[in-house]
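Hey,
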Amino acid sequence: MKKDLFIPLFILLALTLGCSKISELANRSANTGPGANSNSESAKTGETAPASGDYAPSSDAKADVEKLSERFMTVKSFRATMSAVGEMPMETDLEFVAPDRYRIKTGNLMDVIIIGKTTYMKLGDKWQKMPGELDSQISDMRSTFNKEGMRWISDVKYTGDDTVDGKAAYVYTYHAKGPDKVGENESKLWIAKSDGLPIKVEATYKSGPMKSMKVEYDYDAPVSIEPPIK
């Protein structure tokens, strides 16, 4: 499996810069030596704390998207479906329960559960606890649009209104890239009018094995993530 084709966690969440967080996690899980295990004190149910009040665009489109991070941080759980088109097309399902529980499943290629710094990977029909710990880089993927993440975004524009699965949304476009232009892309972001949360992101990449990606968010589905083994 090629490293650059994995869906990024963060992008996972939203920016889809093409950074390889999932690949990074898989490599670290496989290559690090034995280490301590630490489970989080995370919530176990799929409740979502809705943002208060209606969201509306301002005269500063980049500030609008940056504030999205603040609303996203109030979400207790969500599901996201990521569809990648390129040399290796793939569908990835992501589940998240605050503050630090994730499940990432990509067809038969990978099924991973992360709880705190502890990683479980399904190999064949059996789950295994992987040696070592993850660092804090993936501790909260909801912070994609905070000040740190926004330094990779430019040319942000509010382009009008649209609907996604019957939900009224404001539409923004922006240019995004990682260090050394890794994952450089043109992105389109749909933000729900009702609560100001992202409901869809589409990215078209300038180069590399990944041609495009679509991420769709579901905040209403119940989500529960527990250790698959003790």
